[in-house]
Amino acid sequence: MRILVVEDETKLANAVRRALQLQKYAVDIAYDGQSGLDLAVGESFDLIILDVMLPGIDGMEICRRIRREGIKTPVLMLTAKGRISDKITGLDTGADDYMVKPFSFEELFARIRALFRRSVQSPDPLLQVKDLTLDPVSFKVERSGKSIKLSSREFSILEYLIRRKNTVVTRDQILSHVWDYDSDVLPGTVEVHIKHLRDKLDTSFTVPLIKTIRGFGYEITG
Predict the structure, then answer these.
(1) In whole angstroms, what is the distance from residue 176 CA to residue 185 CA?
(2) Alpha helix positions (H), the chain
(3) Which pLDDT tens digit goes with each residue over 17-73?
(4) All domains of the chain, ordered by start, with CATH?
(5) Which terminal Cβ of the chain has fewer Cβ within 10 Å, N or C?
(6) Is-contact 113 182, C-beta < 8 A?
(7) What is the bridge-based pairing of β-strands 97-100 and 26-30?
């Protein structure tokens, strides 16, 4: 899962990024409204955490604009304003949820999980391809009933491939979705992680799941 955090309080933004990264999310940060809007419109995210009071363009206006662009990414608003009228305004602009500062990370994680569950078409968030199951909420992966332990990057790559099953995904698409925007990623990083995934997912099983489409990228079919 890739999350955009738009927050001008540098200390809070960086703390949220560290906390989310420990939860296996890829996180990009924008410290002002214009940068946040540019990222929200120009990149693909699974969730946007959006502060209301921002320099340049405020969070309410960012939310309005991305909805006008047809972007349906779930938006979680953050604000120091706790009045009911403020919450109603935020939700009416197109936000999906609303949190008042200060907040606990435990509550933030719970709200994120709820938004992810809501954004899935089926009420069951479990993803499945053949005999492989992946739970994006509990971060559990099983194949033929056997539990498989993955690193955060491996999990994110696998989830990205499953959500786009029967579609060829390029290396650049994986890089942009799984790694932070400002990450210093070496050439061959994706290939190394794909190899590790294959070692864990395919070595002990008859049918391989991850296919290399030479010259294009990778695909999971099912």
Answers:
(1) 11
(2) 10-22, 33-42, 59-68, 84-92, 105-119, 152-163, 171-178, 189-201
(3) 999 988 878 889 999 999 999 999 988 888 999 999 999 999 999 999 999 999 999
(4) 2-119 (3.40.50.2300), 127-220 (1.10.10.10)
(5) C
(6) no
(7) unpaired
What sign for the dihedral angle of Cα 83, 85, 86, 90? positive
Determine the Cα–Cα distance for residues 158 and 113; give it in Å rounded to an integer. Answer: 18
Q: Is 94 left (phi over 0), alpha (psi -120 to 50) or beta?
A: left
133-155 burial by CB neighbour count: b if 16+ within 10 A, else e?
bbebeeeebebeeeebebeebbb
Q: By C-alpha distance, which of 106, 16, 26, 104 is closest to 7?
A: 16
| Cβ atoms within 10 Å, residue 194 | 20
Cα maximum dimension of the chain: 58
Q: Is 165 left (phi over 0), alpha (psi -120 to 50) or beta?
A: beta
**pLDDT per residue as tens digits for the range 68-89:** 999 999 999 998 877 777 778 8
AA letter at 111: R
Average pLDDT over residues 88-109: 90
